[in-house]
Amino acid sequence: xxxxxxxxxxxxxxxxxxxxxxxxxxxxxxxxxxxxxxxxxxxxxxxxxxxxxxxxxxxxxxxxxxxxxxxxxxxxxxxxxxxxxxxxxxxxxxxxxxxxxxxxxxxxxxxxxxxxxxxxxxxxxxxxxxxxxxxxxxxxxxxxxxxxxxxxxxxxxxxxxxxxxxxxxxxxxxxxxxxxxxxxxxxxxxxxxxxxxxxxxxxx
Length: 204
Description:
NAD(P)H dehydrogenase (quinone) activity, alpha/beta, Flavodoxin/NO_synth, FMN binding, Flavodoxin-like domain-containing protein
């Protein structure tokens, strides 16, 4: 490796703001590790009319939409996603499905990726949502990086919280009324920090 400062892209999709909030804390963690980081959001596939009916939050104008060709630029990605019935939402899947040319050229081979996520409830599919991204990573030759148990508060059973060895997570409640807690946001920052440290080790 060249010794050049690694670059990480934090790429998220968020309907009601939970994953967006987590993404900002993931970015903080990556920054704290001393690694370059850029924040992107995934393009929306729903119409404005449907989003209004869903009471979705407005998309932030200061966070650019990721383009397929930009995925070749960083050394690693951290993808933030809400669950859709325990699996990848259509918006992120659309980004993945647009990567056929990158697969053909092997452009993403050897890069690294992790996931963080949001579900309505504890049993709402946090781990399966992360797992549903793995086939894309495998076919592209991207190496999946879990959080593991580096953050010991994953084991905290005194309070209800999201997150697992698969990555940081939050619980939104079925109506979206619950916001990420201090513990969940701390977990997101730790994930970003540890991912950044790994990128530094690899780029030595």
